[in-house]
Design brief:
This protein is α+β, with helices and mostly antiparallel strands. The chain contains 18 helices and 37 strands. The protein has a five-stranded mixed beta sheet, with helices on one face. The chain has a four-stranded antiparallel beta sheet with strand order 1-2-3-4, with no helix packed on it. Strands 5-6-7-8 form a four-stranded antiparallel beta sheet, with no helix packed on it. The radius of gyration is 28 Å and the shape is globular. The protein starts with 33 loop residues before the first helix and ends with a helix.
Length: 765
């Protein structure tokens, strides 16, 4: 299953009169007597106290009035535009402007008929419109540009601002001669950060709101924090949506005074990636609920439509009473809500279709439950919680856990009953402690879980079974690092697959390729490559059970001497080992490198997390060619072969995979429901989990999703079949000793000594 959440990234948006809570104070006539004025103020204060609960109004409800008179009836329907649309916007004369990754701009009419196709030399995203002007972000030039002026396309787009380095733009809107850009600024620290905006709760990645003067390009940053989305309404107002003090708020912003003038919150306001504020409603995209509509007068959810998923940016658009979504699930731009000139909200999806969507997955053998399961995670859960709700009836409350392992184990031992299920990486030092201390609810009585594990590879069964034969956890998803290669391109450079199978030979190949690549390239990353060497050494050459741990060996020193000297990992955003070449590709957009790493015509080999290739290849095939998931996955494997990560020294070494697992908290007050929650995931794992899965030994499991006869699939299957998972022992996950050595703060021997101490400290704890 393709994971729309994963795209980040990469893999990268009236006349209901709200009744006032308090009678207006400013309407009192000047000629009123002082006593009458005082009595009116006192009366108003009493009304205020009654309405707000003595000043403790939980919803902070304020009056926001909308003018819907401009919502003219237009006969729009869902717009069937070819897949691959990265940005779209409605412009003059009921036209739809779209950009795609082919460096062209397309203009469609309201029926989806192509009017014109304009070639350009750039890839555009984040369209926004003000009057007859259209602005966009030029990904190639890293600049905000104007591409339409007075309704005409500019052959040479005008640069508005190119001085700001953006890592990711979440939203961009135009209003009153200014561009308001909600973005994460580019820094050396976040150069390789994956921004996961599809989480259940807001996570602050350092978003900043920039106000840019269109005429002269001058900019300032607004005094706003924790902003997730923004919107300019059709009646000319600016809104921000953000998080503060455990609540989500909708802010109305005064552009002249540069301050928030009104804010609203309600229990229905959750994490929304994109918003539209029109006609007395807040519309937004929720990763778990789809498209939601919240009545701003009551704070209640007016309606929602499942099976709707759109990214941040401008995938959510409003035009003259019509709400459109670039729905990645349906693969088209859909009109899903309409607001008329009287402020009446109408949904365009029939009740029958909504019900069919809800019941589209096979039900579990259990009656549907109603519990809300608290799931504690260290990052993205990578499981579709909305699908779990559809099948099991149970909702999910994501609880973000501390990354401090000592604090987390203390919490577990103390018994936090708010958490029903913990989701953790198997490589954390917590894993062995949880198992040995039996801080889990045994799962042996579940036939579904037992049957599932029996079909998994032996090492998965072993990892899930404690020494007392308790089934203590279930595997959710996993990943492995391998080398993808194109055989015919390898032949052109005289490289054999065997050479990439051992570390020293791999390095010799890199040396041989220096300066002779031409249009071809290879992809790897010195820092992550070494990290995998380090973990492979730790798993194969150290024995934590017997205490035989040694990083001061000729083999480990040789590995460190290959990867530590000659560069500073954090010296710049593009820093990399001189023999290596890294590319950051998010969908079709790359921030480093000129050659797409999915292109078989130009790639020789690439050593990466294998899932990256599967996810991005499948995503692009689905977007560009309209292929279904199975065909797109098969296409992604064609012409490629995959090798395990290079052996460090011996062919007896086990490949290590990274696995994420889940277990039930023994202190949970709803353990039975939590176990059924996990059963629902395992029964529908291919549909629920947002990553490719290779846990299972039974080949028939893969046949609906892959052509299992393809050499590339056989390669992947053998890698996972012959792999293993290991317990992590180190409680100190820092690798600052490498940076200190690279910056000549410590010697090589001192760096090796610190690595050894880190391992020994982990053993002692």
């Amino acid at each position: 299953m393709w994971n729309p959440d994963y795209r980040s990234l990469i893999l990268q948006r009236r006349s209901i009169q709200l009744l006032p809570l308090v009678y207006p104070m400013g309407a009192i006539k000047k000629e009123a007597k002082i006593i009458l004025k005082m009595r009116k103020w006192i009366f108003a204060f009493i009304v205020f106290v009654i309405c707000t609960g003595c000043g403790k109004n939980q919803n902070d409800r304020q009056n926001i009035i909308f003018d819907c008179s401009g919502y003219e009836k237009i006969d729009f329907e869902s717009i069937e535009i070819p897949e691959g649309v990265e940005a779209f916007v409605f412009c003059a004369e009921e036209k739809i402007l779209c950009s795609r990754a082919d460096e062209k701009v397309y203009l469609y009419d309201k029926n989806g008929i192509l009017n014109s196709e304009i070639s350009s030399d750039s890839f555009y995203g984040n369209f926004c419109v003000e009057k007859d002007a259209v602005y966009a972000y030029d990904y190639k030039k890293s600049a905000i540009v104007q591409i339409v002026k007075d309704g005409e396309f500019l052959s040479n787009p005008v640069s508005i601002q190119n001085a700001i380095s953006f890592r990711t733009i979440r939203n961009m809107i135009a209003l009153d001669g200014k561009l308001y850009v909600l973005a994460i600024p580019f820094t050396s620290e976040n150069a390789e950060t994956f921004f996961d905006f599809g989480l259940e709760e807001f996570k602050d990645y350092g978003e900043v709101v920039y106000s840019i003067n269109i005429e002269n390009g001058q900019y300032q940053t607004l005094d706003l924090e924790h902003i997730a989305a923004e919107y300019a309404s059709e009646d000319g107002r600016l809104f921000f949506y953000g998080w503060k003090e455990d609540k989500y708020y909708l802010y109305e912003y005064d552009t002249e005074r540069d301050k928030i003038t009104k804010k609203i919150t309600s229990d229905e306001m959750k994490n929304l990636m994109s918003i539209v504020v029109e006609g007395g409603y807040l519309f937004g995209i929720s990763s778990s609920e789809g498209l939601v509509a919240i009545d701003l007068e009551t704070g209640e959810k007016a309606d929602s439509i499942e099976k709707v998923y759109a990214m941040f940016g401008n995938d959510l658009q409003f035009y003259r009473g019509n709400l459109f979504v670039n729905n990645m699930v349906a693969g088209e731009i859909q009109r899903l809500f309409v607001i008329d000139t009287e402020g009446n909200l109408t949904i365009t999806v029939s009740d029958e279709k909504k019900e069919a969507d809800k019941n589209s997955l096979d039900p579990t053998p259990h009656p549907k439950r109603e519990e809300t399961i608290g799931v504690s995670v260290s990052g993205h859960i990578n499981v579709r919680t909305d699908k779990i709700r559809q099948v099991s009836g149970m909702q999910t409350n994501i609880i973000f856990q501390s990354l401090d392992l000592e604090a987390l184990i203390s919490e577990m031992m103390a018994g936090n009953s708010d958490v029903d299920i913990y989701v953790l990486p198997h490589g954390w030092a917590l894993t062995q402690r949880i198992r040995d201390l039996r801080l889990y609810e045994p799962l042996n009585n579940s036939e579904i879980i037992s049957s599932y594990l029996e079909k998994c590879f032996d090492y998965i069964q072993t990892a899930a079974t404690a020494s007392n034969q308790d089934i203590w956890m279930v595997p959710l998803y996993e990943s492995a690092t391998g080398t993808w290669y194109v055989p015919e391109n390898m032949e052109k450079f005289g490289i054999s697959a065997e050479e990439l199978g051992t570390l020293d030979n791999y390095i010799e190949v890199l040396k041989r390729l220096q300066g002779r690549m031409g249009q071809y390239n290879y992809y790897n990353n010195g820092a992550t490559f070494f990290a995998h060497c380090d973990s492979r050494y730790d798993a194969n050459y150290n024995n934590y059970e017997t205490g035989e741990i040694n990083f001061d060996t000729p083999l480990y020193r040789h590995i460190a001497e290959l990867f530590w000297p000659g560069w500073d990992r954090y010296g710049s955003a593009t820093a990399n080992h001189p023999l290596f070449f890294k590319v950051q590709q998010h969908g079709e957009v790359m921030t480093e490198g000129e050659t797409p790493d999915l292109n078989r015509d130009t790639v020789v080999f690439k050593t990466i997390n294998m899932h990256e290739h599967l996810l991005w290849s499948r995503y692009i095939r689905m977007k560009e060619n309209g292929e279904d998931i199975v065909e797109a996955t098969r296409t992604a494997l064609q012409g490629w072969r995959i090798l395990p990560f290079p052996e460090l020294q011996s062919d007896s070494e086990k490949e290590t995979i990274a696995m994420t697992y889940a277990y039930v908290n023994p202190y949970s007050k709803q353990k039975e429901a939590a176990i059924e929650y996990l059963e629902s995931i395992l029964e529908n794992q291919a549909e629920f989990v947002q990553m490719p899965l290779f846990f299972r030994e039974d080949m028939e499991y893969y046949q609906p999703y892959y052509d299992t006869s393809m050499p590339a699939f056989q390669d992947i299957y053998e890698i996972f079949k012959n792999a293993d998972v290991f317990y992590g022992y180190s409680w100190d996950l820092s690798d600052a000793y490498i940076t200190d050595y690279q910056r000549e703060l410590i010697s090589f021997d001192e760096a090796i000594e610190r690595r050894q101490k880190q391992a020994m400290t982990g053993l002692e704890e």
